[in-house]
Write a structure and sequence with these properties.
Order of helices and strands: HEEEEHEHEEHEEHH
Strand content: 15-25%
Number of helices: 6
Strand order of the largest sheet: 4-3-2-1-5-9-8-7-6
Distance between the termini: 45 Å
Helix content: 25-40%
Largest sheet: 9 strands, mixed
Radius of gyration: 18 Å
Amino acid sequence: MAAAQLAVERADIAVACHQLATSGLVIGSAGNISVRAGDRVAITASGARLADITVEQVIVVDLDGSVVDGELVPTSELQLHLDIYRHHPQTGAVVHTHAPKSTAVACVLDELPVLHYQQLLLGGATKVAPFHPFGSRELADAVSTALAGRNAALMANHGAVTHGPTLTQAVEHTLLLEWACAVYLDARALGTPRILSADQQSAVIDSAIRLHYGRPRSLSEEP
């Protein structure tokens, strides 16, 4: 893997960390981000403050977790990130945060139901992985299981994990999950939320396909 490419990925991670901190989704060193580039993974270092993380605080490991570039120890959640890449081969980036709304929901529910069709971009209902100490083999296994067929998972009494083919998409999934958790909490404060049925979700998917939802298109593409 060319050093120049890894340099770009490391810089992108630093920018994403700053974005999430500005959005209030990470505080201090609570959270971590990684990007896979071939057989290398750029990942935030343990103890790095994400609001002002530097490129030097993003290190590079191989798929076995051995540091191949950088002077710092990788995040304690390294195993979690590597497991996601192993079990989800199309994944290009992983984001873990202690975002407040997501964490609040993860302290109460076993699953975040689908209240709004935008949650379908996350794969539907979001599973909550059982609690295990951070950095543990058990937590990595539980999160990988909760992510099956999904782009997001919650971690009981801990936080959230999202992934995607690119870092931009993984970050967007984190923002969307936090929004969905906020909607759920607001709706629950008003009463019992209405949950979209499987048929309603399928109807939304059909409409999205028919209308090319989420993609700018020219007037010439209209039938």
